[in-house]
Amino acid sequence: MNYISTRDTACRRSADEVILQGISEEGGLFVPEELPLLRPDEMEAPLDYCARAEQVLGKFLGSFTPEEIRACVRGAYTGGRFENDAPAPLRRAGTDGVYLLELWHGPTCAFKDLALQILPRLMAVSAAKRETKEEIVILVATSGDTGKAALEGFADAPGTRVLVFYPQNGVSEMQKLQMRTQGGNNVAVCAIEGNFDDAQSGVKRIFTDGRMKSLLSARGMRFSSANSINWGRLLPQIVYYVHAYAALAEEGKVAFGEPVNVVVPTGNFGNILAAYYAKRMGVPLGRLICASNRNNVLTDFIRTGVYDRNRPFFPSLSPSMDILISSNLERLLFELCSRDAAEVRRLMLSLAAAGRYSLSGNMHDLLRDIFSGFYCDDERTKAVIRTVFKERGILLDTHTAVAWAACEDYREATGDGAPALVVSTASPYKFAGSVCDALGLRVPDGDLFSPLDTLHTATGCPVPAPIERLRGKEPRFSDVCTKDTMAAYVSGVLGL
Ligand SMILES: *Cc1c(COP(=O)(O)O)cnc(C)c1O
């Protein structure tokens, strides 16, 4: 199985090349040359998470041996890295066919762990295959969770370095502490004065800066990406959709083939795109419901066919979704226009030049055939956290609450009561201050852990061990730069 670029279908690469390279030379994203199918008997086979991951990854990583895939999968998902060695437990949320797919039982308590625990392993195998002697420098722009998950995944991984940029006022205090206390001799963390889009654009600029690249290669290094523009980030996310459907069928919650809707709290469009790929592979997923906060550029896009980032940016209670440029949408556009790279180039040029583009009627129809979009504001987010806890005893984080609201709104608007998988992307304890506020809990003055303790005392829900372990840890990193000094910071850290 080879990969092609969304902006140049003549550019073909093997799986190991795309995992190492991250993004194509001309700025496009790599996608599989064709999407493999899962046969019904393959889906119905009762497999544990690791075996499922081997099955799905095996379809995409043509240049890897089964033994290599197995070693990567077992390394990532066993050995207690995930609570009970269960990376993606399903939780029945009530009698109305709503299930939570909980993806936050890993080392950083957010769903990014599912991809970032395995990506360094896939990269190491890829580097060995290509006999790469260069040190791989991972540059990350984060809206909070990717940064910590990448640091945790790559810390002290041989032959790699990780540099993370996060928006100074755009992540929660707990997320900040998680990143600033990261151990490992190959990591650096820097705040930037700006929002996530500034951080992401800055990283993209550094990636494509020819002078930086040659300085780097003179020192025996090369850049790569752990953001979801890297195929190696996206691929492991397909696994949990296959796994979740198979688990529902196996437990008799759905008859095999019966559609299950999926609701995903969305920012960069990575997670929901993985659901789309699972659906295209034959998993009987129904509607893909894209949930946004007040930064509702995707809701408008799905409803009108016009993507327009020229709008105010609102910091919200769900900061990992405060995004106006959803990079992974490019991969979906490529499919919607029947893989016409010239059309993708035209749309992306328009986005770069004017901050907007519009789909042809045909592309918009195809989009609406599969996706629905809903959004909610912070007040609604808090109301959902309150009622879901009161009525069902389930504590949601602010991102998952946005998805829950979208699920309610979708069901209300359409009357479609098919079983729904609400993707739960973070532990509520990562956003304890907001969750306390939503529940009307008064947090006494104290330190960063006061909201956590208040929330725990009031709800009895267990605090995840990785968060508990942060108590009393001193931050190692306190650097701050602007979007214009990011490149200088990178040069400084790498000694270029
Ligand atoms: C990253 C993140 C999201 C958004 O996921 P995308 O793949 O960027 O759409 C949602 N919720 C949480 C908690 C996240 O960390």
General description of the model:
The protein has 496 residues and is of the alpha/beta class. The chain contains 22 helices and 16 strands. A six-stranded mixed beta sheet has the order 4-5-15-10-11-14, sandwiched between helices. Strand 10 (260-265), helix 12 and strand 11 (285-292) form a beta-alpha-beta unit. The longest helix is centred in the middle third of the chain and has 20 residues, at 231-250. The mean pLDDT is 95. The chain binds pyridoxal-5'-phosphate. Pyridoxal-5'-phosphate (PLP) binds next to helix 12.
Topology summary:
Blueprint: E1 3-5, E2 8-13, H1 15-21, E3 30-32, H2 40-44, H3 49-60, H4 66-77, E4 90-92, E5 98-102, H5 112-116, H6 119-129, E6 135-141, H7 145-154, E7 160-167, H8 173-180, E8 187-193, H9 196-208, H10 210-218, E9 221-225, H11 231-250, E10 260-265, H12 270-280, E11 285-292, H13 297-304, E12 306-308, H14 329-336, H15 341-354, E13 356-358, H16 361-370, E14 371-375, H17 378-392, H18 398-414, E15 420-424, H19 432-438, H20 450-459, H21 465-468, E16 479-482, H22 486-494
Parallel strand pairs: 5-15, 6-7, 6-9, 7-8, 8-16, 10-11, 10-15, 11-14
Antiparallel strand pairs: 1-2, 1-3, 4-5, 12-13
Tag the structure with descriptive keywords:
five-stranded parallel β-sheet; 16 strands; 22 helices; single chain; 45% helix; alpha/beta; globular; six-stranded mixed β-sheet; binds pyridoxal-5'-phosphate; 496 residues
